[in-house]
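ok trying this again, last paste got cut off
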Amino acid sequence: MLELAPVAFVLVFAAIIGLIGWLLVRTVRRNRAPRNPAVGHDLARLAAERGWHYTPRDDEFLRRFDGYPFGRGGQLRPALDLVTGTHRGREFACFQFAPPRSLSPGEGSAEIGYTRVVAVTLPAPVPTLVLSPARSAPRWTRRYTTGDDAFDRTFAVGTEDEPFADHVLTEPVRRWLLANPPAGALRLGGPSLVAWNADTGGFAASMVEPAVAHLSDLLDQIPPDALR
């Protein structure tokens, strides 16, 4: 039995190394091919039909965004499957990107998580207001409350400008958001209203126009002078 111990140790060690290697290969493959090629084809066709523009990859586009969830200046990350255009008189962009994330100690490689983003251009730059589902909101977005119990139980709001938040989150806007909740989080800030949620590979070209329309509908609810 003692003679078999070194052999068993080698076999177990080899199995562990093999498992680690398999996990690394799987991660690399997923990270290299995060998108379904058919999605890009469908987005390009949609853009052509609507008079929009489709770009498979743009390495500079995210420079126009700053702060959560993009990091500083988009952290030089590419925008993937980028669709830009005008809808209901507002310029918009829809794209996929990988948000910045920190590796755990000793973690040398990690599967990239992708996020789908829809952004609509505002008439003028505004202060930052982040609205997230309360169940998954970052801790720092829990400092502001509207006093509306139903709304505050459903959403967490993060802002450094409470008068601006008061001006935006009027009763009609709160009612509308409760009746039409976003799929993920929203951020008013700078020159854009941005919505984002995890992209698990199920995004389809048919989702672009409804997603942009949802943001346009929300902007139609907000008092116009709050966005000037």
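PB: full thing came through this time. The two ends are 81 Å apart (CA to CA).
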